[in-house]
Each structure stands twice: as C-alpha cells, then as structure tokens.
Amino acid sequence: MKIKEINIDDRPRERLINNGKESLSTNELISIILSTGTKNKNVKEISEELLSKYSIDELKDIEVNNLININGIGKVKAITLIASIELGKRIYMKEPKINKKLSTPKEIYNETKYLFNNLKQEHFYCLYFNTKQELIGKKLLFKGTINNSTIHPREVFKEAYKLSAYSIICLHNHPSNNTFPSKADDDLTYSLIQIGRIHGIPVLDHIIVGDDNYFSYYDNKKI
Questions:
Q1: Which residues, other chains included, contact 133 with Cβ-Cβ below 8 Å and sequence gap of 6+?
Q2: CA angle 222, 187, 118 (to 5 degrees)
Q3: Which among 2, 128, 132, 216 could bridge 165 via Cys, Cβ 3.0 to 4.6 Å?
C-alpha cells in the first residue's frame, strides 16, 4: 500500500500535526525523514526494514555505506537521515561554552565530557585559550587510533594561529574506559609540548577521557 492510499489521519505527517510528535513510532519518524518510498515499497516499509537491521542504539553511529545497502535508501536519503540523527545528538549534547574560564583539568573534563558520549573510536580535540584561560575555540582534529604519526602538529597549531590563542589543551577519549596513557599517548604529548615551546604557544595539558573518569598529564605531573 502506498502512503497516499493510507487514510489521511493515519499518515505520519498528519499524525504529528494532529497528535504531537510523541505519538509517532520510531518507524513513523524515520518515514517522515526519508519522505518517499520506491515503486515497489512505500516509505514505511523501507523504515521497517531499516529498523529490522539496526537498533536505535546502532543508528546513533550508522554510516552512509550501511544505509545505502537497504533497498529504497539511496545516498541522498542516507545523508538526510544521518544529518537528522547528528542534529538531534547536538541539540541534546552540552557544548563547551566559548569565553568560559576553565582553570583546572576537572573543570575542563566536566565541560567537555559530553563530546565523547557513546563514541566507539578515539576522537582527538584541541581546546584553545586566551591569556585569561578563557575558552576561545575547539577543534576535532582526528578520529581513530591516536599516535604520533596520525596527529599532525601543523593542524594543531594552524588553528591556534587562526584564533590568536595563547595556549592549548589537548584531549581525547579511550573507549575502553581505561584512561591510563599509552606509550603512543606519551610520545604524542611530549612531541606537542616541544613544538608548542618552539611556536610560543604552550600545550598546558593533555586529558584522556573515559566514561566517568579522566587522566590529566598536568595533574599527574607528567607535564
């Protein structure tokens, strides 16, 4: 059955308007985002197939290549759905506040830990500060396994120059929740510290974030 053959009061868009967004099933919400079906399948059937293959939890990190394997979801629909999911994540994620003074590793951890919620791979961020230790910018520089060869110092310091930053604090997550630094973490940290001294933009700390804990090089006197 095509969507237009369904009673108008039972169609997802009309139900959202008449009964509120809370009344819609996940299937119906996805149907609205995907918008149209194919010649052989209506959009609700495509949504049902999607949900039969991936749970809600898995949708949080789904990629274009996963979605386009489902008959009826092309690249445009896949991008639209992923963008909608990402927007929803950002709306409910507490972003670090620009111009907020962050003086201690604990304050930085509390302000930024939401960046790493439910991530299954390492993400490496740099935070940039002015002379008053106020946050003036942040940048995600890398996703994947962190080591000295994958983090490019030119990207770290290019952003610092763009922002006229006085200092930098690096942070990344360990999805394993073991926040003790690896040798690769140490090598990267000490390399960035040395380069920071050369550039006159000190790297003040490197914070490794877990699910509910963190490790600070500064607190542990490793900087």
A1: 101, 102, 103, 167
A2: 85
A3: 128
- Delimit the domains of the chain by residue range: 3-92, 105-216
In the block, residue with structure tokens 């994958």: 150
Q: What pTM does this model have?
A: 0.64
Q: Chain-centre distance of CA 22, in angstroms? A: 25
Q: What percent of the chain has pLDDT over 70?
A: 91
Question: What is the DSSP secondary structure assignment for residue 4, as one 8-state letter?
Answer: G
Q: d(Cα 201, Cα 161) in Å, to the nearest integer?
A: 9
Which CA distances in Å does 5 have to 8, 12, 35, 55, 139? 8, 13, 15, 28, 48
CATH architecture of 3-92: Orthogonal Bundle (1.10)
User: How many C-beta neighbours within 10 Å does residue 55 have?
Assistant: 9
Token couple for 89? 């994540």
Classify residue 40 as exposed, middle or buried by CB count within 10 Å of its CB (0-12, 13-18, 19+): exposed
